[in-house]
Amino acid sequence: MKNNVKITRIKLSITQQRLAQRVGVTRQTIGLIEKGEYNPSLQLCVSIAKELNKTLDELFWEVEL
Fold first, then answer.
1. pTM (2 decimals)?
2. How many angstroms separate the Cα of 15 from the Cα of each of 6, 31, 46, 61?
3. CATH number at residue 19
4. How confident is the model at residue 61 (pLDDT cuts 50, 70, 90)?
């Protein structure tokens, strides 16, 4: 699953560990989400979006160009 979590997190100078703690998962889970190797629940997607001050569409919506 492609997403913009890593790009957004880095722009905000937030570590994987800090984001993981804020949303209640492990750092490894955040890493897997960023690589597209883990499909997070809708609840986790919402939590990540709130922490990064983005919409679900901005972080997780795939757009074919």
1. 0.90
2. 10, 10, 18, 22
3. 1.10.260.40
4. confident
Q: Which domain holds residue 12?
A: 5-60
The per-residue pLDDT for range 3-48, each reduced to its tens digit, is 999 999 999 999 999 999 999 999 999 999 999 999 999 999 999 9
In the chain, the number of structural domains is: 1
Place of tokens 């629940």: 41
Helices (H), 2-62: 5-11, 16-23, 27-35, 42-51, 56-60
The answer to whether the Cα torsion of 23, 29, 41, 8 is positive or negative is: positive
Amino acid identity of residue 42, one-letter, is L
User: Taking the CA atoms of the chain, what radius of gyration do you get in angstroms?
Assistant: 11
